[in-house]
Design a protein that fits this description.
Strand content: over 45%
Order of helices and strands: EEEEEEEEEE
Number of strands: 10
Number of helices: 0
Largest sheet: 10 strands, antiparallel
Radius of gyration: 18 Å
Strand order of the largest sheet: 1-2-3-4-5-6-7-8-9-10
Shape: elongated
Oligomer: single chain
Length: 119
């Protein structure tokens, strides 16, 4: 963690006051990428980036409600997939043409698969 920022929310009990126990907190690396987030409910998320500052993993510290999200890119920086739990889990798979435009999105969610093709 290089830099931490905090967002404090208004008090629910006293008008015009803030509640110092009700806040989100963020940490950033030297490139300005968010590396850590603390939610209002105290849940923590860690963010990991590749050498090109592209998000590669969103790591939930307590995975009881949400699976980690894995991201993969091609050499041009186009997102190939965003998947839950692992690089082979449920999620979204994108396919792009040679002109850097997406032409299909495939959504995997349990037993359901949906493909959109853009012409």
């Amino acid at each position: 963690m290089i830099d931490c920022k905090k967002r404090i929310y208004p008090s629910k009990l006293i008008k015009g006051e803030v509640d110092n126990t009700d806040f989100n907190q963020y940490a950033y690396d030297l490139n300005g990428n968010m590396t850590w987030e603390r939610k209002r409910n105290a849940a923590q998320i860690y963010y990991y980036y590749d050498n090109n500052n592209r998000l590669r993993l969103k790591d939930y510290a307590n995975n009881s409600q949400t699976a980690d999200i894995y991201y993969k890119y091609d050499s041009r920086g186009i997102t190939l997939h965003s998947r839950f739990g692992s690089h082979t889990g449920e999620g979204i798979i994108n396919t792009a043409d040679g002109f850097l435009q997406y032409y299909s999105h495939r959504y995997y969610h349990g037993w359901y698969t949906h493909t959109q093709i853009h012409l």
